[in-house]
Amino acid sequence: xxxxxxxxxxxxxxxxxxxxxxxxxxxxxxxxxxxxxxxxxxxxxxxxxxxxxxxxxxxxxxxxxxxxxxxxxxxxxxxxxxxxxxxxxxxxxxxxxxxxxxxxxxxxxxxxxxxxxxxxxxxxxxxxxxxxxxxxxxxxxxxxxxxxxxxxxxxxxxxxxxxxxxxxxxxxxxxxxxxxxxxxxxxxxxxxxxxxxxxxxxxxxxxxxxxxxxxxxxxxxxxxxxxxxxxxxxxxxxxxxxxxxxxxxxxxxxxxxxxxxxxxxxxxxxxxxxxxxxxxxx
Length: 282
Fold this sequence. Notes:
By secondary structure, the protein is an alpha+beta fold. About 50% of the residues lie in helices and about 25% in strands.
């Protein structure tokens, strides 16, 4: 779009290498890691970072010179680059962390929102998925992507305003285990493990799993499973020829009736009504 560039990158590597990237773009970058691990150095920020999937931050730089070293064979990232003037117009009306960051962009001072990279919560992941799976075309597509880009910025600003001093999960090791738990649930959404089984799979106790998962991702384990199932159901209903019954079984419901009730409680309409009238609002 004219003032915003959206990128979704899925990179597969045959070896572990260093890749350099250079350009002269002046912009604000919303960066999201979705999977994989890597190190990268950012010359304009005079900083280096070691990152693993499910992280995010916001950076402003006049020009870009980075060096990325992959530590896994697959890396997936998502990003939104705002034209600097467009971002300033939005960001100066934000919360305190966003206002301070925007002030640096106004003064053309290279900056990162926080030295601490936060973990993508469930709301952020949902919006990213909505952007990736956007079905609109032409002007409506641009309007939708603009609104979702601003929504992501708002969610990040909210995330970075939260206090971290009383966090329950304090170590990178526990954070990584909880990210692993989330990935297991995502990959097995049709037949997810129980909390007891998941606890054993990732090697932490049930209490830490339940409390840590909610702290890190902003929802309970059951809430996450439900949310992913409903998002998948909505996408399949609108984007495929599958029946509501087929979708119910595909996403892990034992009966179409239970699926229909859950869908209506979430969106206010039945799955069959969406299938028969895809232009209805949900």
